[in-house]
């Protein structure tokens, strides 16, 4: 799908304004419908998981399919677990890209960096509860609307990192100090790290922010045009994310078995587990059984590092981030998450 850059020096024409006003209803309604479906799916399964833990006092699932099988089997298992959430992520990204006016998004959330904006984007991402792979298409579309890199990164990191159900389950299943270490580490990664990466990389906005096809036309769009614009956006987002997700998941599946072989030891083991946790791809809640194994092996610090770094970022999301922005942004994020996970792990060791 051809990309069209926004001409920031040109004010919207009256016809463009009239066209955008017609999308003020279509865009938010379409996005609201998709988000309602996502919340029903994610929050329903989260409520069931929490109820199960409260009833039994423990976690009944395991991560054996990810840690003991071969890479191909583990990758297939991973996609069987996340495909519905990934579909939601792609549809949300396509809806934003096709129907939501970038000018309206920037006007609503602002372009200036502030702690307030970081908190707003964090609160926007946390309820999505999408895993790191599934939220990357959403990051891609939001970033392309002209939102600051730090804000788009906060949305991307808050969805898996500040997942309310995952945080609650952590406090239910582990000692309080591990729960607080995870919460503190996730807040540091999602709220504090993105502005640092933006400043260090010197990249604040997308080089050529894009707009949906409907906003490039002066005539009032028909339903057929709206549907076709959405299909084009969905295809473009899928082609730019799914291949990298597949490659990243397969590569991370080769690394996954090592995450439990380093189960005892001191700071060195915490650092190694944190490094592995940065790259492995985990479905939602699968960091919990891995951390349970690490705690039972006598390494609570490694468990805390896994809980912080495991869900919040992985090799597929880092690959997509590096292509969408710059490789040094992805490398900086990986290093920052690793460092914060190590600090969180050492705080409970």
Describe the structure.
The protein has 349 residues and is mainly alpha-helical. The chain has one domain. It is built from 15 helices and no strands. The radius of gyration is 20 Å and the shape is globular. The N and C termini lie far apart (51 Å). The N terminus is likely disordered.
Furnish the topology, listing elements before pairings.
Blueprint: H1 14-56, H2 64-67, H3 71-99, H4 102-109, H5 115-125, H6 132-144, H7 149-161, H8 164-173, H9 176-201, H10 223-255, H11 267-279, H12 287-296, H13 300-312, H14 315-324, H15 327-348
List its traits.
74% helix; disordered N terminus; globular; 349 residues; 15 helices; mainly alpha
The low-pLDDT segments are 1-10, 215-219
Helix content: over 70%
Total tally of structural domains: 1
- Counting copies of identical and different chains, the oligomeric state is single chain
Overall morphology: globular
**Mean pLDDT over the residues:** 84
Structural class: mainly alpha
Report the count of strand segments. Answer: 0
What are the secondary-structure elements, in order, as H or E?
HHHHHHHHHHHHHHH
Strand content: under 5%
What is the number of helices? 15
Let me know the largest β-sheet.
none
How large is the radius of gyration? 20 Å
End-to-end CA span? 51 Å
């Amino acid at each position: 799908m051809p990309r069209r850059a926004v001409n920031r020096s040109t004010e919207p024409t009256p016809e463009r304004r009239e066209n955008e006003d017609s999308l003020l209803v279509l865009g938010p309604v379409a996005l609201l419908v998709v988000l309602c479906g996502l919340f029903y799916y994610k929050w329903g399964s989260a409520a069931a998981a929490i109820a199960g833990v409260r009833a039994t006092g423990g976690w009944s699932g395991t991560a054996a399919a990810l840690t003991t099988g071969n890479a191909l089997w583990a990758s297939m298992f991973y996609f069987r677990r996340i495909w519905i959430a990934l579909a939601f992520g792609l549809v949300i990204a396509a809806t934003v890209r096709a129907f939501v006016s970038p000018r309206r998004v920037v006007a609503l959330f602002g372009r200036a960096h502030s702690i307030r904006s970081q908190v707003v984007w964090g609160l926007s991402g946390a309820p999505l509860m999408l895993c790191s792979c599934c939220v990357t298409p959403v990051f891609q579309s939001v970033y392309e609307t002209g939102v600051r890199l730090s804000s788009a990164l906060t949305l991307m990191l808050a969805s898996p990192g500040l997942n309310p159900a995952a945080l609650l389950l952590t406090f239910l299943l582990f000692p309080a100090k591990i729960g607080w270490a995870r919460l503190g580490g996730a807040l540091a990664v999602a709220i504090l790290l993105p502005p640092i990466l933006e400043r260090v990389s010197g990249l604040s906005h997308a080089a050529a922010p894009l707009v949906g096809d409907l906003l490039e036309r002066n005539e009032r769009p028909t339903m057929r045009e709206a549907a076709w614009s959405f299909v084009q956006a969905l295809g473009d987002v899928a082609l730019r994310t799914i291949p990298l997700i597949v490659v990243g998941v397969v590569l991370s599946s080769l690394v996954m078995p090592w995450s439990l072989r380093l189960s005892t030891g001191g700071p060195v083991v915490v650092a190694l587990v944190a490094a592995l946790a940065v790259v492995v791809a985990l479905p939602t809640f699968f960091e919990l059984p891995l951390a349970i194994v690490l705690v039972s092996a006598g390494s609570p610090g490694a468990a805390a590092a896994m809980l912080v770094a495991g869900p919040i970022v992985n090799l597929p999301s880092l690959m997509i981030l590096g292509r969408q922005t710059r490789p040094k942004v992805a490398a900086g994020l990986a290093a920052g998450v690793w460092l914060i996970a190590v600090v969180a792990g050492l705080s409970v060791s």
